[in-house]
Specification:
Length: 230
């Protein structure tokens, strides 16, 4: 069986177009037109990846509510927003809820397929890692395990998404070196705009601060990017 993808989209034509294309790629696609349909199905079984619209029928934030539910069930389940809403507020809201990617519907289908494939490759690292020492990064209180995609600070687990993990990994791998937004996007295997990278960085900082209120290791280098303090 192929990977199980949940597509939550209230517009029938879009739903049918994407589901047909995904099935051609070998995925098992399960479509839902409403928040209620999706949540009822997810109570029985979670998908391997979820693609969510935000506005669902008469619920303008139905997709956000589904995202919140899925992230509460699994910290590593890939979640993609695919929506016509392209404001910075909506993008940041989606990322704050734990989505791994936020795409607008003017993106090409080929790009969507690349994103899905990339997210599945990341998830495979959870079960296929070799556990070699070079896959472990330890800098002060930070521990990163690139095989299991686990991040720890002061021996406490950080609840971060896959995208956030790879952004953090890219900075921590070379402490003191500035990483541009483009380099961080490349590390995360995501094609997003500057504001989205900034949103991920803000969310990472907040998650560290929950554990350690004095955290200040992620430094903004204005006009250049970000770095992990050496």
């Amino acid at each position: 069986m192929g990977k199980r993808i949940a597509l939550v989209e209230d517009e029938k034509a879009i739903r049918e177009n994407y589901s047909a294309s995904l099935r051609k790629q070998g995925y098992d696609v399960f479509c839902y037109a409403t928040k209620q349909e999706a949540l009822k199905a997810f109570e029985t079984r979670l998908p391997d990846l979820a693609i969510l619209d935000i506005g669902l029928g008469d619920e303008p934030e139905g997709g956000f509510e589904i995202c919140r539910y899925l992230r509460a069930q699994s910290e590593t389940l890939p979640i993609i927003f695919l929506t016509a809403l392209d404001s910075e507020f909506d993008t940041i809201s989606g990322l704050r809820l734990g989505a791994d990617d936020y795409l607008t519907k003017d993106i090409s289908l080929a790009q969507v397929l690349v994103r899905i494939s990339t997210l599945f490759r990341r998830v495979n690292a959870l079960s296929s890692g070799s556990g070699q020492p070079e896959d472990i990064i330890e800098i002060g209180a930070l521990q990163l395990d690139a095989n299991r995609l686990i991040a720890m600070w002061n021996n406490q687990p950080l609840d971060i998404t896959l995208t956030e993990f790879w952004i953090l990994h890219a900075m921590a791998k070379r402490p003191g070196h500035v990483k541009s937004r483009e380099q961080l996007m490349e590390a995360a295997k995501a094609v997003v705009d500057d504001s989205t990278v900034t949103s991920h960085i803000k969310r990472l900082r907040k998650k560290f601060i929950v554990i350690d209120s004095s955290f200040d290791c992620i430094e903004t280098v204005y006009g250049m990017g970000y770095r992990w303090k050496a």
